[in-house]
Amino acid sequence: MSYFEEFLRLGEWLSQDDRRALYKYLLLSNKEIYEVQANLLLNNTKLNKTIANGEILYSFKNGRVNYIAREIASDEFTPEMREIKLTGSHFIDLARLRKFFAQSDVDVIQNYPLPGENPQTEGGFGIDTYPYYSLAYYSNGKNRLSGLVKKFRTNDREILTKLRTL
Amino acid sequence: MPITISKPILLMPKVPGVFVIGLLAAQFLLFQGGNGPDPKCRVSVERPHHSTSLKESQKFDAIKLNVTSTCNVPQDYTRITAQIQKIENNREVVAHNFSSRVAASTVKSPETAVFKNIFINCVPGVEVAYKGFAKGYVLLKNGEKIKVVGTSGNYEATDCEIGAQ
To answer: Given B97, B106, B116, which is nearest A76 (Cβ)?
Structure first.
């Protein structure tokens, strides 16, 4: 089993560093897939996809994209968990949507993992309040400058290397 | 000379009937809204503990903090920032600040939100006294926001030390 496949089974046992590194890994390795998905979403206003043991439903309305999710084979969708505003510029929006897709994939992987040996708490959907593409994540909602400093100080190289190579 | 008694007009309503009915209806609606319970929420923070699950499945040591928010009315989600504090040189210091988290309630338990992955690696072998702390707010289904704050209570010793931040 690869390191990435192991991550798909960890669920709530993914640490904060694991989740952030996973986001960076998905953003890079799924660049083309996310672009195709972004175009589908912009053209059809809806997009449905699955990752790990979860299903994500994206909606595009009034220049904004949001998502809801559920465990595969469950009837219960989460409330709208995140939203991103688009600009109308195709190039910028593609870049924004790629980040949004990678973020939502990490959100769903940590809540609806593939079956594994790690015990998971039943019910609920928990995410980091601030997305990893935002400086607010690094400053925990405080000022952007301290977020920028912390972003440069954050080093995910070790986990990223494992995700790419193992 | 005939005595004329004026018509008793005191009993005549001074406000139109429709208005009175409207007022009664408004009062009824107000009382209906007031009959629901006063929304109250609390956040329960368990004492930070050395997680055996992580040790067994992930082969690493970590201090885990279990946090749950519960209301007496349905909630959408709870948003908190959590912290583990420790005693160092007889002083209370922050051992770790967790990034802000959001947990949504479920259809099965609409009054409750459970925070799952709040943990931080630690080095075993050193006994340290920890306490958990969380603060934030609950967004109720009716749109109302309720502030919550909670601690795990007294400091309790655990045989694992959280590294310096």
So the answer is: B106
CB distance A124–B104 less than 8 Å? yes
Residue A5 neighbours by CB distance under 10 Å: 11
CATH assignment of B41-162? 2.60.40
pTM of the entire predicted model: 0.82
Chain B contact present for A32, CB below 8 A: no
- The number of beta carbons lying within 10 Å of the beta carbon of residue B52 is 10
For chain B, which residues score pLDDT lower than 50?
31, 33, 165
Q: What beta strand segments (E) does chain B contain? A: 41-45, 49-50, 62-64, 67-71, 75-88, 91-97, 101-104, 112-115, 119-140, 145-151, 156-162
Domain coordinates of chain A in residue numbers? 3-165
Does position A130 have pLDDT exceeding 80, yes or no?
yes
Cα angle value B144/A134/A110 (rounded, 5°): 75
Q: What is the DSSP letter of A13?
A: G
Q: Under DSSP, is residue B68 helix (H, G, I), strand (E, B) or coil? A: strand
Residues A96 and A64: beta-carbon distance below 8 Å: no
φ, ψ at A112 (rounded to 5°): -125, 70
Between CA A142 and CA B79 the distance in angstroms is: 15
Chain A contact for B142, CB < 8 A? no
**Which residue stretches of A30-89 are H helix?**
31-44
For A114, other C-beta atoms within 10 Å of its C-beta total 16
